[in-house]
């Protein structure tokens, strides 16, 4: 260092002027969700905490842009995803499963995407394979068929003695490659509980009530709704209300009013999502990050629904629940 540079440095130190701080990059993270409940408070807190542990703190070096499609329709989700792209986010987290992942993928092939808990990302065409996702997208998936069978087991415990269960779905659901495996898993789960399985499908949700009424007349004791990526929140709400009206304990989203479901731990998913975000922020390409299958499964029960249908849940099942909606 030249002498005049040394004198300049000494003058700065003597004056007490702060030294220039190194530039710190601010990352802009987009979060896409089909409805506010997809950003479940406990899981969201876990996600934010996991990001902070990796050095990303909102308000310091991280800006989080949240976009929610309250209607849950594919076009509304795509519009929300387009908003995030327009904001020039560095990455989009597609929360809420398959629908968000597909919407984000349709909107951009450039912005990195990390999806959360898709039931069959290969079957839905989100990724090319689990090991090599391809394109600009990766994330976490769940064993849809296995958790379906587990849900039937818990429904049997809730009822006490399950002799029959009806599986209902929209006609479009059977178009998906995962459908057969999912149905076979439900059948196997019911058989293990000594229950028969009936199947019914509707072309329009308005057909569901006479269908459910007929199933009840046939002596069905429980219900399982199999949705797909085009199932709207309004459709789920309607079916959950039907199950309550006809006093049927039902497998489906407890957040929408169904009795119970067995699914991935959203806290575990949140932590793994933070891991993917960190890797991408540090330069990794999504196509080079294998999709991780989540093994941490949780049971969620809506106790309000149980009361509404006059079902006294066994204490052992309530103690087993990872989350109770009251």
Residue fraction in strands: 15-25%
Which outline best applies?
Answer: elongated
How many helices in DSSP terms? 11
Q: Kindly, what is the distance between the CA atoms of the first and last residues, rounded to a whole number of angstroms?
A: 69 Å
Task: Give the topology string: H per helix, E per strand.
Answer: HEHEHEHEEHEHEHEHEEHEEHHE
Judging by the overall fold, what is the CATH architecture of the largest domain? 3-Layer(aba) Sandwich
- Decide which structural class fits the backbone: alpha/beta
Radius of gyration: 24 Å
- Biggest sheet statistics: 6 strands, parallel
Rounded mean pLDDT is 86
Summarize the SSE layout with pairings.
Layout: H1 3-15, E1 27-33, H2 41-53, E2 62-68, H3 74-86, E3 91-94, H4 98-107, E4 113-118, E5 137-142, H5 144-159, E6 164-170, H6 179-192, E7 196-202, H7 208-217, E8 222-226, H8 233-245, E9 250-251, E10 260-264, H9 266-281, E11 292-294, E12 297-302, H10 303-308, H11 315-320, E13 323-325
Parallel strand pairs: 1-2, 1-3, 3-4, 4-5, 5-11, 6-7, 6-8, 8-9, 12-13
Antiparallel strand pairs: 10-12
What features would you highlight for this structure?
40% helix, 2 domains, Rossmann fold, six-stranded parallel sheet, four-stranded parallel sheet, disordered N terminus, 326 residues, alpha/beta, single chain, 11 helices
How would you characterize the overall build of this protein?
By secondary structure, the chain is α/β, with parallel strands linked by helices. The chain folds into two domains: 27-142 and 265-295, 3-Layer(aba) Sandwich (Rossmann fold), CATH 3.40.50; 144-263 and 299-325, Response regulator (Rossmann fold, 3-Layer(aba) Sandwich). The chain is 40% helix and 21% strand. The strands form three sheets. It has a six-stranded parallel beta sheet with strand order 2-1-3-4-5-11, with helices on both faces. It has a four-stranded parallel beta sheet with strand order 7-6-8-9, sandwiched between helices. Strands 10-12-13 form a three-stranded mixed beta sheet. Helix 2 links the parallel strand 1 and strand 2.
